[in-house]
Specification:
It is a single chain. This protein is of the alpha/beta class. The chain is about 45% helix and about 15% strand. It has seven helices and five strands. A five-stranded parallel sheet has the order 3-2-1-4-5, sandwiched between helices. Helix 6 links the parallel strand 4 and strand 5. It starts with 7 loop residues before the first strand and ends in a 7-residue tail after the last helix.
């Protein structure tokens, strides 16, 4: 792969830069797959109603990843899900607030009403960094480059195959 063929780096929020799982567990405890259908939706509605997306802590290695991305001379753009159509406006507003508070100044974050829509932004010259395997698989099927985010250093090491520092 030739470095610098990438024209845009898309970055997910929850699980990559914002710690959704930690806050959710603090409020509602762990959720098993068995309980997910009956308890997640009401808990998630409360999570949204109490402005939790704006209050999430950054991921522990957020600044490592952000500093590296800021050093790369390729446009970066947030591409994050609002879960559902009916929660689009509220979660978008909360996530924009989070980005502002944490000084993520990349232009024009993109929010989609469900992770299943992210692949629509995939092009051969774009990368997505996401922690959800189904998003990674869909992005690759659509022809884009995808990095399955496990932690900042792993992601940075993979990005180095495609980009150079400014």
């Amino acid at each position: 792969m030739h470095k610098q063929f990438i024209t845009t780096i898309y970055l997910d929020m929850d699980g990559v830069i914002a710690d959704f799982e930690k806050r959710y567990k603090e409020l509602y405890g762990d959720i098993s797959d068995r309980d997910r259908r009956s308890t997640f939706r009401p808990n998630f509605a409360d999570f949204i109603a109490t402005n939790q997306f704006a209050a999430l802590e950054p991921m522990p290695d957020f600044y490592t990843l952000k500093n590296y991305l800021d050093s790369v001379d390729i446009p970066k753009q947030i591409l994050s899900s609002t879960a559902y159509e009916e929660t689009f406006e509220t979660i978008s507003r909360q996530k924009k607030e989070w980005l502002h508070v944490h000084n993520v100044t990349w232009p024009d974050p993109i929010f989609v009403p469900g992770k299943r829509h992210k692949y629509k932004f995939a092009q051969p010259d774009t990368i997505i960094i996401d922690d959800t395997l189904s998003v990674i698989e869909d992005w690759r099927k659509a022809g884009g480059v995808a990095i399955w985010h496990l932690d900042a250093m792993n992601t940075i090491n993979q990005l180095r195959q495609y980009v150079r520092i400014a």
